[in-house]
Write a structure and sequence with these properties.
Blueprint: H1 3-14, E1 25-33, H2 43-60, E2 63-69, E3 73-80, H3 85-105, E4 113-120, H4 124-140, H5 155-161, H6 164-173, H7 185-191
Antiparallel strand pairs: 1-3, 1-4, 2-3
Helix pairs in contact: 2-3, 5-6
GO molecular function, one term: transposase activity
GO biological process, one term: DNA transposition
Organism: Candidatus Viridilinea mediisalina
């Protein structure tokens, strides 16, 4: 491990709270690759990630509200009947995608994923704000100009199912600009 990777690892350990899950509760999950390396830059790897996600959602009975896969991280908005299944779900997602990527690159055992962070969603506004945040994440990171131009997200599902005007209305009703840090409005008031 290089000195930079070691320093990054120490920094992240200080900022990784324990995971605490409650049954039947919405969570936003964010996972990053090790040292934010662009392990998923290859579109083929994003397809593997998406297909693995689809299989595991069915296996674990997860309700997946929104998702996006970028080159060095992903976001999920999900609910599990049993909260304890969330960690097992993420563990299998990371193990399966790492194995496929490492097989392709002929680098067995290489660590791909660093960790994941979760936020319990406490309000309906918080749910829809995160829904919008996830779909706008490729725009935020400069991959595309519009969310519909990024094919590795749930945006297209909602555009077909509900229509683009529904998505636009959702963004107007639950804007994300003031919540880019992922904080709920009540958290900002309490800290202020």
């Amino acid at each position: 491990m290089s000195r930079a990777e070691h320093n990054f690892e120490q920094h992240m350990q200080r900022h990784t709270p324990p995971h605490l899950y409650i049954d039947n509760t919405w969570y936003m999950l964010t996972a990053t690759t090790l040292a934010h390396a662009p392990f998923l830059a290859n579109p083929e790897f994003k397809v593997i990630m998406r297909e693995t996600l689809q299989r595991l959602v069915l296996r674990f009975g997860i309700r997946l509200k929104a998702w996006v896969i970028l080159d060095d991280h992903y976001h999920l908005l999900l609910k599990s009947h049993l909260g304890r299944d969330v960690g097992r779900f993420v563990g299998q997602l990371h193990a399966n995608t790492s194995r496929h990527i490492n097989q392709h690159d002929a680098l067995p055992g290489r660590q791909i994923w660093h960790n994941y962070w979760d936020t319990c969603v406490r309000t309906e506004a918080g749910l829809w704000t995160r829904f919008n945040y996830i779909h706008l994440n490729p725009v935020k990171h400069g991959y595309v100009q519009r969310p519909e131009d990024w094919k590795f997200s749930s945006y297209h599902y909602y555009a077909q199912k509900e229509g683009t005007s529904w998505l636009s209305d959702c963004l107007v009703r639950y804007p994300i600009a003031e919540y880019l840090s992922g904080d709920e409005p009540e958290d900002q008031v309490r800290r202020g």
